[in-house]
Amino acid sequence: ILNGKTLPQSSFVITSRPRASAPLHDKIERRIEVIGFGEEEIEQFIRKYYGEASGSVADALLARLNSTLHRIKAMCFIPLILLMTCFVNNDTTPDTISDLFKSIVCLTVKRHFEKNGVEKEIGSFEDVLRLCPRLIKLSQLALDGVLKDVIIFHNLE
Q1: Which residue, among 130, 110, 132, 134, has the nearest Cα to 122 in the 3D structure?
Q2: Could you report the per-residue pLDDT of 75-98, keeping only the tens digit for each?
Q3: SS3 state of residue 41
Q4: Quick one: which H or E segment has residue 115?
């Protein structure tokens, strides 16, 4: 794409990792970085996520973000973190980003089990690790890839 062989009409490269794309900057004519949400946009997003029917849920989450979830709120300027915070809000209240990601994994596995008729109780991240032992190996593989700056999965695999 960058050399114009594929999609020669393209004029943008969009990435969620602007630092990782720094070596490409001299090959790109235009570059746009999304800087994320401000205080007002965070509140608007939460209210829109829950809608008018669940205004009290939105109010409760906003109150918790302002009073006790300072670490999470500090990351909510990143739209994906804010979406994940809203997504897990009904099931749990994570205190840290690690807890947030663990909650996402728990909810995802729980919903997968429900969708496939598997009757297993997912109450904690430890339950997920017990019920899905391959997750530990996959996590280690992903960590090794990040540490070695290697792409583990390719389209051909």
Answers
A1: 110
A2: 888 888 899 999 888 767 788 888
A3: helix
A4: helix 97-115
The answer to whether residues 81 and 75 touch, using CB atoms and an 8 Å cutoff, is yes
Tokens of 68: 């006790």
- How far is it, in rounded angstroms, from Cα 143 to Cα 34? 26
At 29, which helix (H) or strand (E)? Answer: none
The pTM score is 0.66
Query: How crowded is the C-beta side of 109, counted as CA atoms within 13 Å?
Result: 22
The token pair that represents 145 in the structure block:
């890839």
Percent helix / strand / coil, the chain, rounded to 5:
60, 0, 40
Q: Whose CA is closest to 48, among 75, 83, 76, 78? A: 83
- How do residues 93-151 score in pLDDT, each as one tens digit? 788 888 888 999 998 898 889 999 988 888 889 999 999 988 888 888 888 888 887 77
